[in-house]
Amino acid sequence: QFGGAGDFCRVQNERWEQCAQETLDEFLRRGEGADEAKLELDSRVTANNGALVSVVAEGEAYTGGAHGEKFRICRTVDLAAGREFSLDDIFADAGWRDFADARMKELAESGAEEYADLWERPSAEQLGADCFYIKGNKIVFWFPPYALSYYRKGFVEFEFALKDFVGYLSDDFKIAAKI
Q1: What is the CB-side half-sphere exposure of residue 18 using CA atoms within 13 A?
Q2: Which pTM value belongs to this model?
Q3: First to last CA, the chain
Q4: Cα 153 to Cα 82: distance, rounded to the nearest angstrom
Q5: 29: left (phi over 0), alpha (psi -120 to 50) or beta
Q6: What would the pLDDT profile of 77-134 be if each residue is shown by its tens digit?
C-alpha cells in the first residue's frame, strides 16, 4: 500500500489491487481442472527516497505442464508530483536507447556468468514500458524469460548507475530521484 492522503496514492493502491485481482483471475481461469496448480507472488520496494518509490512484484504461476510461468510487475512513482513513470518518461528523448544498447552489449560480452548463454543481443527497443526499476541509485533494465535466453535463466537484468545516464534523464525524473 502506498501511504499518504490524496487521490494519487488511492489510485495507485487501486491499480495494485486490480493488477493482483487480474493475476489471480487469470491463474484461476488457466488452472481450472488442473491436477496441480500453484501461484506464488512476492514484492519488494527497491527505492524510496521520500518522493520516488520503485516497487517490484515477482511471481510464478503453475497450472500444469513442464514448468510454471514467471511474471514481473514494476512500478516507479513520484509521490510528490503524483505521477507514475514509464520507461520513456524517465528519459528526455530517445537518445538514451543507443547509449543503453552499447552499455548492455558491453556487459553481455563481458563474460560474466549472468550473461552466459544469451542467444539474443539485448536492445532497448525490446524493453516494455515497465521493464525497469530503480534500485537505490541505479536503474535496472530487465528482460523476461525466453526474451534473451532459455526459460530457466529467468529474468535477465542489466544494472547501471543512474549517474551514467544523467545526460539523458528527464527533468521530472531528476527532481523525483533527487539527482
Answers
A1: 6
A2: 0.85
A3: 26
A4: 36
A5: alpha
A6: 998 888 899 999 999 999 999 999 999 999 999 989 999 899 999 999 999 999 999 9
Cβ-count burial 111-145 (b if 16+ within 10 Å, e if not)? eeebbeebeeebebebbeebbbbbbeebbbbbbbb
Which pLDDT tens digit goes with each residue over 149-172? 988 888 999 999 999 999 999 999
Separation of alpha carbons 19 and 120, rounded Å: 30
d(CA 162, CA 52): 14
Q: What one-letter code names the amino acid at 162?
A: L
Closest CA to 163 of 107, 99, 102, 109: 99
Asked if 177 and 162 count as a contact pair (C-beta separation under 8 A), the reply is yes
